Structure formats: C-alpha cells, structure tokens
Please model this.
Amino acid sequence: MKFSIVAIAALAAAWAGTALAQAKDPTIAGIEKYREMLGDDNPAELYEARGEQAWKKKAGPKNVSLENCDLGLGPGVVKGAYAQTPRYFADVDRVMDMETRINWCRMTQQGISEADIRKRPFGSADKPSEIEDLLTYVVTASKGMTMNVPSNHPKERAAYELGQAVFHMRAGPYDFSCATCHGEDNLRIRLQELPNLTKSEDAKRAYIGWPAYRVSTSRVHTMQWRINDCFRQQRLPEPRYMSEAVNALITYMAQTGNGAEYKGPALKR
Amino acid sequence: MEMNPARRTVLRGASSLGALSALVLAGVLKPTAVYAAEWNKAAFEAKDTAGALKGMGAAASADSKDLVLKVPDIAENGAVVPVDVLSNIPNTTSIAILVEKNPQPLCAQFDFANGALPEVAARLKMGQTSLVKAVAKADGKFYTAQKEVKVTVGGCGG
Amino acid sequence: MADPMKIRAQMKGDVTEVRVLMGHAMETGQRKDAAGKAIPAHFIQSMTVDVGGKRMVDAQIGTSISRNPVFGFKMKGAKAGDKVVVSWVDNKGDKRTDEATVA
Model:
C-alpha cells in the first residue's frame, strides 16, 4: 500500500499548508524571529579562511596551488565565478557545478587522484573536508552578486532537462520523487517549510542560501551533500558524488531560481 | 580604594600561578598575556541554577526590569540559541547567563571594565525548553531577568 | 591548531562594536561517541578582550556556549585605529590570541 502512505502524507501536508496560508501561525512567526536573531555571524567564515589558504597553497603530487584554476571566468578568477555556475566548460565538454569544477582542478592541475577526491568529500564537524573549505571560499567570493547562470549552450539546456526529469522521477520503497516534497506550494514537514523548487520564486530563495552552515550539525554542507540527503530521505541509493544526474539536478534548480542575489553561505537550523 | 577590575584579574591570575607571576615580575610576560586563570569551578559545575548562583555569590538577587534579556520565543534548533543581554542598571560590572534546565546551567560570566558597556551577545546550547536567566552585578548587588525559550526539533529542510 | 578568530570592530557613533567568531568544538563532556564512550569535555574557559591596550572584557565560559562561539560587545572610549586583542584559553590549556583594528 505504498500509494496510500504517500496520499496520506500529501493530504496531511496540504492541510497544514492550508492552515498556514490562512493565518500566520505564531510558531512560524517565532521561528522567523529566531532566524532573524541569528544574524550574520556565520561559522562558515572559518571554512572560508581555511579555504582561501588551501586555494593558495601548493599541494598535490604536482605541488601547485589552485590559483590558475579556471572556474568559468578565466584562469584564477574567483570573484563572481560561483554566481555563473553550473555552466558548460569547453575543456571537458560538459556541464559542471562549482564543487565538481574545483575538484576537476584539483585532479588535473594538482594531480590528486579521482579516488582521493572521492574518498571523503563530506567531512564532519570535527574534521571538515578540503572541498568544503575550498568551496566555501569560492562561493563567498560571489556573495552579494546576482545569480547569472548561463543557459545558452545546448548542453546547459540538456542538463536542465535531465535535471527536471530526475526531479520528477518517482522511485524507491516510498515511490517518492524530489517533487513529492518540493513540487507543490505550502508543504512542510513538521516546522520546516518546503520550497516548491519548480517555481522560480521558491527556487531563488532556496538556491541563494547554499552551501550552508547548519547549526544542528555544526558544519558547512555543500549542494552535492544536500542532494544526497534528499535521496537518503527518499530511501533511494546514494547518488555517485559529482555524477551527471546530481549536476543536472543542481543545474535545473539553479536555472529555475536564476536572477536572485547570492546570499550564501547561509546559517541554517 | 576601588581597584580596577581588569587590574584585579591580572593580580588574581598571577597570584594563583606562582611560576607565571615570576615570569611577569621578570618582565618575560606582559601582564595582558596573563589570563583570568580562576575559572569559577563551583559555579560552572553546579548541576542546578541555585547551586550556580550560590557559586557566583549571587544567592540573593532581585528581578529588575532594567535588565533587558533578548531571546527568541522559539528556537528552531537548541544547538544555537541567540541571546542578547543589556543592563541599564547603573554601575553594572558583570553579566552572567544561565539556562535553567541544562545539565550545567551557568553558560558564561562577563566582567566589564575600562569603558565596556554592560551588554553582551552570545549563542547558547539548550538541551530542552527552559527558562534563560540573566544575572547582572551592580554595586555588589545582583539583579535578574528571565524568559522561556521553546526548543523545537527540526525535520528535513533548508 | 585552532582556527584563527574572526574579529570585527567598528565605530557606530561613539560606540565601538566588537564581534568575535571562534573555531572551537565546545564539547560538553555529556555526549557519547558511536562506540558509546563518553567524549571528554573540551571547551573554552576564559576569554579577554583588550581595546586600545585596555582590558575591557574578562569572561569565564562554560560548556553551554554553542560550538564555534560568537560573542558581541560594545565599548566607549575607543576610536578607529585602536587595536583589538582577543584571547581565549580552553580547559586543556589550548589557547589563541588574534588581533584586529577598529574601523
């Protein structure tokens, strides 16, 4: 009776959504005040500082820094690069998100093996991973800029379409898709409001906060991690790190929510 | 003669660490490099609020509307609860913050001197819904303010 | 070694606002690891803030302060260009001192 579980969940969520739309729940208002009081002081800045050092430090078998890495705006240009990803990179003839691109530079320029890159992409509060530091440094250099994700290249359009298809693909023991939770207005799980990522307005709000430092885990989570966590919650097998499917999903969300001011890395619950 | 609290701290730190004080006297260490060495173990390791207040010497205190405690009514996650305390009580020299239901309620105590205003912002851990209490010291007397913070558990999201 | 602190110090009228972000586990000693073993307490116990060469804040800190602590202070009598020195020491004797300039 898989279907009925989904139906009940959807009904319950829809009911909660209706109640939410009718009157501002004092609990939701309280949570908003909490988020406001958290303010701007974000431990992600510690990641950023380490990431900048790691970016400039000679490392890997080839003992070079990442300072000549081309993040899309030319070799060595970090400022504003994140606001224009995911994008098509001619040198690899594919669309990459920023996390994949930085790792590609680590492999090709520093000579770090793909196996090493894949060994521990997601760290812990006590031991963050190097890509979490590097990515936080790179994304912070786009803070305050307008997201301007390109969609002119055929492969950028193809990635969007693939991402959209994956977003709606139902699978797993619960017969869930990303869209089950993130394809309708005003859904929530307990107190968490779920953005409708098929709509520009919600996708904008969601996208500009990632990567994010979560106070519940005391660490920075990357977008690749965030997608993996959605798969986990759907009880689906964990997708391969930096896979085409994950990059396509990120591209779909980025293009849907394009045009907002980048505010990450955010501080979240 | 009223001693400058910061100066007192230096002396306190130095006297409790013989070796360090010798270094200070020898001019090897500047006095500012000596930390407030006396962590109030009795107050911080107390398992309840009464014990913590006793450890601070603040067993007798009075509520004051001039002590302004700002906390959210609800915390989305108890790992980080923002708090801001401002004392409008004249001659406030210290502010302490406690979470009543934490295993060790006393979170921190801040002593102010040399122009520091009696105001502090911090982030607290809260194991569960609890009263948060601020305690200010002024002219040797203690004043309190308190507010409840509801701690919720999040679901999926972001 | 502990991460360097992030210190912001700005004049707002005649008040200096200082905000400090520290990298620290602030382990309470109450948690257990995956194997069920207690994780020992590891937390910052004291912190000082000096502005323009004067000790302005002298704090004692316990385990109920969040991981990667953030503190905010305000002071009078300081001016742009003054040096802000923040130091902390934890219960294992680890310590850090970092500096910033009032802007």
